[in-house]
């Protein structure tokens, strides 16, 4: 195969180098396009055909339904690793030794208290505030309480900022959850595991000891692993481009949380449950809603279906669907919603509209059913997605900074008015 691509514009030929990745993906390096042609650029709304970077963190193949973190398959990691181990792998590139994981966890625990003044910010929010908006604000506010973690350049300073956010973010998640439920904002226990501590901080009632449910713990650990990274998705690209201005890790993460909130992205897990509940309230008539999803005149979409990249089954959805069955069975939860979800999936996988468009269940289709069975309210589902995605965002931000990538600044094709003269108001 040639190592160059040739482009012909107005009879003149231009050559551009090809970049081939370790999984044989091929890209045309157009970084010299504008300077070597007469300011010609490319146009690709939504960047469906455009790579923003070279990355060594996550590989996914949408056609084959493959997802790997640093070369390890998501299936193996979900079965054999725990979330903190996967966080270390994503951020630093290798699975940790026992000593490395112990040091990582103790460095994180040393940072797992937040400034008491943050309680005042939490208190200022109405109970009706959406948790994702609260979490984005609290994450950005961390910059004010940790100024030394802002514009970090050395690997050592980056490490300090990373263990800080990994220690404090679960507290912000727990306090966001507890605020909505009128519970005291307290801490967990440094003697617990990372995910155990998250569950205790979220669910401990003030008047009783918290009893850890191993089924819930195992399910949450697996869900967080499955959400941990997904290469250059909307929110991760947002973290990378915000971070490219050197605004610092916490503020960059805050932009990612806001991007994830959208119902077309991470907010879909909440939208899926709301959709399933409305179908259930409407008598469980899945045919009616399948018809609505296919009707071009109807804005209704089958939430939890379709994906920008996966044109095959989302490998995470397969694992989560199996976990949903296990968790509900183990918890003895009979959930009509799960039956409706399975009926919709069965119909969609046979329906030409969905098959022709390669619309399969994605990561969000079943995750909410497990969160609900765990006692997590619907509007906290995307917060749990953010908790899982945190190490991926951190890994991508760190890679962008260590690679000394330039500030992100896409171009445009201007299609507005050409030059015209100002007219006084009485002449308009
Ligand atoms: C996540 O990018 C990532 O990696 C994201 C993520 C991650 O881990 O970070 O995987 C997490 O965001 C998962 C996706 C969660 N979103 C949803 O479940 C919302 C519902 N899905 C859709 O809105 C949609 O499928 C998207 C946004 C996910 C993908 O949209 P695309 O690839 O831009 O597809 P499209 O909008 O161009 O649609 C192609 C066709 C259209 O029909 P035609 O115009 O060809 O006739 O498929 C149709 C669409 O109308 N279509 C759907 C549909 N999704 C696409 N029709 C009905 N229901 C749907 N869900």
TrEMBL record:
<keyword id="KW-0808">Transferase</keyword>
<feature type="active site">
    <location>
        <position position="364"/>
    </location>
</feature>
<protein>
    <recommendedName>
        <fullName>Citrate synthase</fullName>
    </recommendedName>
</protein>
<comment type="similarity">
    <text>Belongs to the citrate synthase family.</text>
</comment>
<dbReference type="InterPro" id="IPR002020">
    <property type="entry name" value="Citrate_synthase"/>
</dbReference>
<dbReference type="InterPro" id="IPR016143">
    <property type="entry name" value="Citrate_synth-like_sm_a-sub"/>
</dbReference>
<dbReference type="GO" id="GO:0005737">
    <property type="term" value="C:cytoplasm"/>
</dbReference>
<dbReference type="InterPro" id="IPR016142">
    <property type="entry name" value="Citrate_synth-like_lrg_a-sub"/>
</dbReference>
<dbReference type="GO" id="GO:0036440">
    <property type="term" value="F:citrate synthase activity"/>
</dbReference>
<dbReference type="InterPro" id="IPR036969">
    <property type="entry name" value="Citrate_synthase_sf"/>
</dbReference>
<dbReference type="InterPro" id="IPR010953">
    <property type="entry name" value="Citrate_synthase_typ-I"/>
</dbReference>
<dbReference type="InterPro" id="IPR024176">
    <property type="entry name" value="Citrate_synthase_bac-typ"/>
</dbReference>
<keyword id="KW-0816">Tricarboxylic acid cycle</keyword>
<comment type="pathway">
    <text>Carbohydrate metabolism; tricarboxylic acid cycle; isocitrate from oxaloacetate: step 1/2.</text>
</comment>
<dbReference type="Pfam" id="PF00285">
    <property type="entry name" value="Citrate_synt"/>
</dbReference>
<dbReference type="InterPro" id="IPR019810">
    <property type="entry name" value="Citrate_synthase_AS"/>
</dbReference>
<dbReference type="GO" id="GO:0006099">
    <property type="term" value="P:tricarboxylic acid cycle"/>
</dbReference>
<feature type="active site">
    <location>
        <position position="307"/>
    </location>
</feature>
